[in-house]
Amino acid sequence: MIRKFIFRMLLLAFLLFVGLAVVGWFYPEKYLLVDSGPVQAEVLIVLGGGSHERPVRAAELYRQGVAPRVIVTGAGDDQINRQLLITNGVPEKAIEVEGKSLTTQENALFTIQRLRAEHVHSAILVTSWYHARRSLKCFEHYAPEIRFYARPSYFGYASEDWTRTGVNKRMRLELLKLPGYWLCHGVNPF
Asked: CB atoms < 10 A from the CB of 173, how many?
């Protein structure tokens, strides 16, 4: 009796997992994209990666007055993203750089250190649409006392653009990274 129950529960869990995987594979934009909508915060955080659409989106948000300053995070992209912010109208004095992180987890850990030291209570994450869920969940996981919002770039969002813009490969990889972060770091993607 107990074995039957355990078998049924495992089968149900497996079918649920397969169902979610199928939906995620065929409709990734429905699962990966998180956008908090119009919000205000103390700082914008631009994550490295993407096709340099992230700093352009952050500059747009800065010009709208959603936050008075910007932190650029991510080794390798940090100086390029900083320059793109300046080129797109963000004053140099409003930009800070965290240039050591190599992963989304490190983006969160290193930036959160700074946010805590500065007693920041709210921040807006600016990343690619397909990276929004994992980055938001990662920052929330490591600093539950800080309110994080996601305002991603929509570069390559239309499904007909996925292959042409190179988003298809990144997006599919993101579907693997979500459960990977859950298993390795405890970052729940739901």
From this structure: 11
Per-residue pLDDT at 23 = 66
Task: pLDDT band for 66, please (50, 70, 90 cuts).
Answer: very high
The domain of 119 spans 33-185
Q: What is the CATH number of the domain that holds 147?
A: 3.40.50.620
Determine how many CB atoms are found less than 10 A away from the CB of residue 189. 18
Q: What are the angstrom distances between the C-alpha of 58 and each of 43, 66, 90, 180?
A: 10, 10, 9, 28
Distances (CA, A) of 145 to 1, 16, 174: 45, 32, 26
Evaluate if residue 80 carries a pLDDT over 70: yes
Q: What is the DSSP string of 19-82?
A: HHHHHHHH-HHHHH-----S---SEEEEES-TTSHHHHHHHHHHHTTS-S-EEEE-TTTHHHHH
Global pTM?
0.86
Domain contains 10:
no
Q: Is 148 inside a domain boundary? A: yes
